Amino acid sequence: MSLLDDFMVRAVLAAVGTALACGALGCFVVWRRMAYFGDATAHAAILGVALALAFSVWVPLGVLIVALAMGLLVGTYASDTITPDSLLGVLSHSALALGLVTVSLLPQARVNLDAYLFGDILVVRPLDLAVIWIGAAVVLGLLAWRWQALLAEVLSGDLAYASGLNPKRDRLMLTLLIAAVVAVSIKVVGALLITAMLVIPAAAARLIARGPEAMAALATLIGVAAAIGGLFAARTLGTPAGPSIICGAAALFLVMTVVARLRG
Q1: Max CA distance (Å), the chain
Q2: What span, in angstroms and rounded, lies between the C-alpha atoms of 165 and 147?
């Protein structure tokens, strides 16, 4: 029997892969205040799920296409008349509503919406693991490649331009990476909670980290600890795995808050 035949081993590997993908990227979400965009992208993922089921397309691919479309629409149509947050609100809730309506029109035997809303990590397949880990490798590789440019854009867009960088391209890359993380992580924590996996570990690490690289590393460690701890808590207590992982991240955020206060 293959090691990957053990559902708990697959679940742990999926949770750790998701945490790796979310750690450093979550820091940029926090620094650039993109949490609302992440939330909107996750809401739009439900429309991607519905369309994928309706047209018999691979679900992560459907989610990725809709999430990318969300990012491109916001970047293209945001203006002084329609601010980005207003546009995000319109698009995210419209996409969520349209996705739920579409799902309601599909044969019920084909739809298990709870698995996409809250995650279904205990039934991940080897193919899901491959997608998660390849996605994590791509995210980390691109962030490492563009790390200094992305940091310069966070500090000052004008400074980045003066240095010969292209902040607009780097912002687009972050948008695409967030969409990719939503697509590959939907099976683990679900569309309603994936933004928390991006934001909470990074916010916790920000409380005590000294420097951006240390924050990214600590956010990743917090995410991995929350993923493994939450998963085993779910198995012990019989609670849903995805929400249990987020509860673990929230608990670690409280711990970091106490540590930060004690350090003065």
Answers
A1: 60
A2: 12
